[in-house]
TrEMBL record, chain B:
Keyword 4Fe-4S attributed: no
Source taxon at top rank: Bacteria
Protein name: FAD/NAD(P)-binding oxidoreductase
PANTHER family: GLYCEROL 3-PHOSPHATE OXIDASE (PTHR42720:SF1), GLYCEROL-3-PHOSPHATE DEHYDROGENASE (PTHR42720)
Keywords: Oxidoreductase
BFD-like [2Fe-2S]-binding domain sequence ranges: 397-448
Keyword Zinc-finger recorded: no
UniProt feature coiled coil, ranges: none
Protein's organism: Profundibacter amoris
GO MF entry, a single one: oxidoreductase activity
Organismal lineage: Bacteria, Pseudomonadati, Pseudomonadota, Alphaproteobacteria, Rhodobacterales
UniProt domain FAD dependent oxidoreductase: residue ranges: 9-356
Amino acid sequence: MIDLTTPIDVAIIGGGPSGLAAATTLKATGVARVVVLERESDAGGIPRHCGHPPFGAREFKRIYTGPAYARKLVQTALAAGVEIHCLTTVVQAREGGELLLALPEGQQVINARRVIYATGVRETPRSARLLGGMRLQGVVNTGALQSMVFLKHMRPFKRPVIVGTELVAISAVSTCAHAGIRPAAMVEPDPRPTARFPFTIYPRLKCVPMHLNTRPVAIHGDKTVSSLEVEDADGARRHIDCDGVILSGMFTPESTLGRMGHLEVDPATGGPVVDQFGRCSDPVYFAAGNLLRPVETAGWCWDEGRRAGARVADDLAERLPNGIETVPVSVQGPVLKYVMPQRLNLKVSRGKDVLQLRLNDIAKGRIIATSGGKTVGQWSVNSRKERRVLLSVSRLDQSAITGPVTMTFTPA
Amino acid sequence: MTINSTPYDVAIIGAGIVGCAMARRFTLEGARVVLLEKATDILDGASKANSAILHTGFDAPVGSIEVGCIQAGHEEYRRIYRDFGLTLDECGANVVAWSEEEVAKLEQIQQQAVDNNVMDTRLITGDDLRKVEPNLSDRALAAIAIPRESLIDPWSSPYAYLQQSLMNGGEVMLSCEVTGGRFDGSGWKLETTQGLVRANHVVNCAGLYGDLVNSSVFGQAPFTITPRKGQFVVYDKAASRLARSVILPVPTARTKGIVLFRTVFGNLAVGPTAEDQQSRTDSSIDTETLRSLMAAGEAIVPALKGMPVTATYAGLRPATEFKDYQISADAANNWITVGGIRSTGLSGALGIAQYVYGLYRDTGADHTALTDPVIPTARVLTDTANRDWKEKDHGEIVCHCELVTRREIEAALSGPLAAKSLAGLKRQTRVTMGRCQGFFCSARLAELTEGRFVIPMAEGVDK
């Protein structure tokens, strides 16, 4: 159980890179009691089961494998005086920073002055993809595969098909290689792979054919998987023989606690609505890391966690403006997928504040921000699908903003 | 080959919802029972996927065996659920009319309810409906409220029925398929994949295979099963607050139509479709149908749009060429067939068991009912109840989405009904049935279930 004799200044839900970075930063800025609540048996988050480099360049100026990096994050946090409680599940997050916990010893309610949500992302499962066919064992996300291979030394199949070509799909190829699994193929609905060069040559090195313009339709089999039915761009269908399916990517923030609780959740990012300080609709709660939007690297999340820690420390010291005077920011049209933060406090906007956008498609042109029918900012953009786009808030004509800001894309 | 020295009084074929209720009833009446199931886990056929609604029978065919069984079953469930620790969410249902033609049909539906002795329904206006269901589309014109339609746990309930049989002397044989049998004028020798099983009487509750079991023994069957597939979409738990009652459409001649309902596990679901097919195993889903179900759900509750989908599934209902349940006793052969238990099997099971025991008694069977039967404690998996994670020393939470503890998993992996498949474990504990569908817990589960499943989740790799 968590000792309740000393007040908890900040409780951090989730002990991955962003949560641990936030905790470490909070301690470094002199916050007295910082508690990390981690539901798994070990802290460290997703890197724990990414058994490959490169992790840690930005954080530690060294290259680690995922598990080594996770251990380093934990050691750093502990050395800074962070309390890490594993096997501790937050069941409910209530108004004002009251958290209902489930621990092996039973239930406990704790109160924290501030809470940082850092619960990360997960991949979209078969069900939410509306993938057809039979519901069979042997259909897993990359995260589950990695945990099986690197944490439990087990393999669920020998010849799976990998669906998707995000970076995590490349990681799936590597995980398979580690466990002696030979993927039968990778399939990608788009005409080109999502991951960047040179990662995309790795599957070829491992002799895994990549089928582009190929959409998964249905999983077939009786008791176990026997094939994946796919459709090409012309609508022709065929079966790829396999004994399993790895559904990679299509990340979604693990924002359940917010969704089931009282926080406003943005349907576009899937994460909580935040202002540029990472502050949620309940000002006691902040958010950091991949919970904010799918998906960034561990290093990026670590950096976001660090900044969230600094801002929460500012807030505790009453150095942060209140969250009332904000304008909502949203995207419109088919090309722009989301913008984060979704609220801006203009009066205190600093030069380094950025709007983070993501695109549904390849886009070359201009992103235009309007408010009250007037253009209040524009940026040129030339980006591939699913790439991060960062826009400087300083480019907004703040005095012209009269209400909600809408971002649209105009092709060149 | 095993040949029991003393024959069982009754062999029941099929451990679905009906077979489990049947085993309980016959055991309580004092009969020596064996339940034979071809799958490795109980509830693995038609019973694994349904709408989890305990019906009143208001819309069942008047005067049918079905309506009698539903109502007797509903009543018995209400009598026993508290003692068993089972769930009953008396959320009520509303049959909603979305067009003037449907409004015109409401009175007829209400009359049918009266004919079925469901007297507490009432006609309500669209405005009154939206007072109790504020998230319903404003296209809803009127409705009939059926207060006693309820939600229950579709797996813990039959599981508890069978548990009570086993605790009071009943037996179960899993992975035991009946392939044939001979009646010698006084008793049966059933040929099974586990050897011969002797029983004086046989009750065939084989669900999707009911006609095939009769054929394998008699060379013919009184009906033919044509499986009717129903696909479902289950939304995230955040959606459950969007509906209070079961939202039913005005039925057509062929189907009850697409229903929007909460589950006792805190989700909101939309379904089923009604697709006739020949295959008894093909419970595949297809993207287009799932999309159309979602569109149907969003038409009923617009706020469902954008709500994440947690699960998708299909169930097979054992439909026959007849409208009513096909329950018949062959007194000369000591054989009772219980077939064609379509979509209302969960509601009807306890009532079907009473009815069948009556048919059996009419053949002259004579047992002394147990005076003080042991009552099992059901698994508590519903959101509102005292789940194991709230108690001390549960080990750890393994499945985070559904808050399933290690202690619950270990319990489900032991005893005579120990889960032998991931599907069976899911029904007993709800592991991997939440939003992440195993993203977080599959590896730990593969480890915890190593050596327990017929088809393992994963195999060990040399380090």
